[in-house]
Amino acid sequence: MSRTEQAARLLRLTRLDTLARRTWSGLLIFNYHRFGAAGPHDEPDLYSATLEDFETHVAELADRFEIVAAGSAEWGDGPARRVAITVDDGYRDQVGAAEIMSRHGVTGTFFVCTGFVDQPHHAWWDEIAWLTGGGACDLPPSEWFPTGLDSAGLSTTAFRRRVNLAYKARAGEYGEKFLDDLADAVGRARLATDTSDHWMSWDDVRRVRELGMEIGAHTVTHPVLATLPRQRQHEEVATSVERLCAELGEPVDLFSYPVGARASFDDATRGVLRDIGVRRAFSFYGGVNGRRHDDMFDVQRAGVYAAHTTPVVRVMADMPRVLCKG
What we know:
Radius of gyration: 20 Å
Helix content: 40-55%
Oligomer: single chain
């Protein structure tokens, strides 16, 4: 049992969870990604929960908080503490999450990478997981690893995460070259492109909307926007918004930043969003949106991961300023 699970158990046994909830106010947004269990072609760190566990999360949160829609919620007045749920990327397993929220009368917000719907293919993070899955190995000096990467002492997981960080920091417009070079360096072929079973179809996206969920844009190809020139940022954001508007037949003015770290978006990104008419944009580095938070281009979200059992999610909601720090 982790320390967080122990804390959760203690809070509940002593009935201090109610008092703990009074230590914060505002809007806490939990962000999820994939549902189920990772296969050899999947990035395991992207999995947030099984659908069964997710349903338990939703029921627990709904029992203790008002769950609101992230894209339309206000947090400067009304109940002191509100919770919202968002889901990133557009994987097909997320349709089940939308069905669960609909059954519980909860409006979630789903951010879709339109390029994966239009032309299904493996995401760069899933390709990295595959290419590094054979185990850690030394990587020579390159534009991606200026001094090389010494794999001594690195587990397969640590190796994968180091490569993933390098992609985020340096690949920019040259993601395909990064993956080609990585395949050569590790001696493993890249994945075939047929991933139609991985991603939502446009019918699936419309189904999620029909279930009462909000839909927002998440770019076309999921680049780290701050590593791109302003024009390329504009193309990624505008095209994704336009495709969603066309397929849904309604305006789309919500957006979440790929990766979502502080360094993943910049002033140029904010300018692009303003130009396109995005009303609210969501980051992903933790934090709670306090009652005075007024930066609508940095609405903060905290991640839920597979290691977060239901008791852990419960205590995260009780004490987000400690456990969901930005």
